[in-house]
Amino acid sequence: MRLFKKGMAAFVAACVLSVVSYALALDNGGVRYPEGFRLFDHVKSMIVEPGFIFNGQDLGSQVPGLHHIYGNKKAMEGYRALKAAGPDQVVFEEGSKIVFDLWQTADVVSGGTAVVENKRLAVAVMEKDQVRFAATGGWGFQVFDAVTKKPLLDANAQANCFQCHTLAAGSDFVLSRLRD
């Protein structure tokens, strides 16, 4: 009987730990780190340099480097619909995830120059959930540390992300477009 009680206590402790871990993962806005995002479809890549002004701010000075954008299956359906129908007609499905993989670049010179990935700076995520993220157009925003994968944005910073995305209200707040 004692063995049963000890086993039950260990089981209950494991359950509590799981619930607490899940709750902590949902902290900071509820967006979780997108494990395996490199297996999502590639949307596009771009190099952002200092002096690139977006919405009145020098975005290039804030997040310079190589930006790879990935979308999960649901996000890709939204991107394809956006490409076919244009703005004001597209709503991305619940569960859509868009990931920005942000890299510092380096130049490799050998008779010419190649710009390559040097160091991952951060991973930024948009996650669609109309209930959890009702205050921000149905999208949750978070930026994760490149090494620890810990969330970096508090509620105010997440609201600031959404403010920029209001420029794309007609395309369900998604600024990027699928490349050909």
Which CATH architecture of the largest domain? Answer: 3-Layer(bba) Sandwich
Strand order of the largest sheet: 1-4-5-6-7
Q: How many helices?
A: 4
At the fourth CATH level, what is the homologous superfamily of the largest domain? Cytochrome P460
Shape: globular
The topology string of helices and strands comes to HEEEHEHEEEH
Distance between the termini: 66 Å
Can you put this structure into words, describing what you see?
There is one protein chain. With 180 residues, this protein is α+β, with helices and mostly antiparallel strands. It folds into 2 domains: 1-30; 32-171, 3-Layer(bba) Sandwich (Chalcone isomerase). It is built from 4 helices and 7 strands. It has helices at residues 2-25, 59-62, 73-85, 155-165, and strands spanning 41-48, 53-54, 57-58, 65-71, 97-109, 113-128, 139-145. The protein has a 5-stranded antiparallel sheet with strand order 1-4-5-6-7. The longest helix has 24 residues, at 2-25. It is globular and about 50 Å long. The relative contact order is 0.16. Residues 4-28 have low confidence and may be disordered.
